[in-house]
Design brief:
Helix content of chain A: 10-25%
Helix content of chain B: 25-40%
Radius of gyration of chain A: 25 Å
Number of helices of chain A: 2
Order of helices and strands of chain B: EEHEEEHHHH
Shape of chain A: elongated
Strand order of the largest sheet of chain B: 2-1-5-3-4
Largest sheet of chain A: none
Structural class of chain A: little secondary structure
Distance between the termini of chain A: 57 Å
Number of helices of chain B: 5
Strand content of chain A: under 5%
Oligomer: heterodimer
Structural class of chain B: alpha+beta
Number of strands of chain B: 5
Chain lengths: 77, 163
């Protein structure tokens, strides 16, 4: 038989989320908050067209740019 | 005109004096996050539209992404990290945690600080006043109702909790 609700410790109770105090104190680390050694910068190039077929992405000039480590496209493996 | 690589800035953040050497073009948001390690202040649109970078300057909401540190020397800057004192959470922080008003948590620091500025000048605001005060801070979880309720809960406890 199920015990009455007032005898249960979890069911029927309003519980504080485990991460609530971390969030309200600003301690939660989001991706943008991480600073790791030798981090590099990334940038997303989005399509200028709302509905189009990608036939080809020419990455040659981006790859040739000084300091560029990688250019990734949907075709990258 | 030559721009110096770094300039000396003295900032008062969360009650402490900080002497920094920072590039003069860095915003307060960047200096807080990158030079002072205070990542509780969040980086949102960087255009002054979302207010997630909000801090308090002399008790008033301020967009740190549009503020230059050199303009703020001698002013009192408060970030979410400074809301707790002596290991005790601010009543707003407790109410936000209790009512689940922090969902993803990204707008939470600015929401808390903006609500603190409101309660400091109006300890028992109406729902309308709360909505108006927080209107500029965008919550993309759209959890506004719980946020309003948390501000009301904190206000109702004023005097019963310390600070």
């Amino acid at each position: 038989m199920t015990p009455p609700a007032e005898e249960l410790s979890i069911v029927g109770k309003s519980l504080i989320k485990p991460d609530a105090f971390s969030k309200v104190s600003g301690q939660t680390k989001f991706a943008d908050d991480l600073a790791l050694p030798r981090m590099i910068y990334g940038r997303i190039l989005r399509s200028p067209h709302p509905h189009a077929r990608i036939l080809h992405v020419d990455t040659s000039r981006a790859r040739a740019h000084p300091g560029v480590l990688a250019v990734l496209t949907g075709g990258s493996t | 005109v030559s721009i110096p690589e770094r300039v000396a800035v003295r900032l008062r953040v969360n009650g402490e004096e900080a002497a920094l050497m920072v590039p003069p073009y860095k915003t307060l948001l960047e200096v807080l996050r990158e030079d002072m390690g205070l990542t509780g202040t969040k980086h949102g649109c960087e255009l002054g539209e979302c207010s997630t970078c909000g801090v308090l300057v002399d008790g008033k909401p301020f967009l740190s992404c549009l503020s230059m540190p050199l303009d703020l020397e001698g002013r009192e800057i408060l970030t979410v990290e400074g809301m707790s004192a002596d290991g005790r959470s601010h009543p707003l922080q407790i109410a936000f945690a209790e009512l689940g008003a922090a969902q993803c948590g990204y707008c939470t620091p600015a929401m808390l600080l903006t609500a603190k500025a409101l309660l400091d000048r109006d300890p028992h605001p109406s729902r309308d006043a709360i909505m108006e005060a927080l209107a500029g801070v965008l919550c993309r979880c759209t959890g506004y109702l719980k946020i309003f309720e948390a501000v009301e809960l904190a206000a109702s406890r004023a005097g019963t909790l310390a600070r």
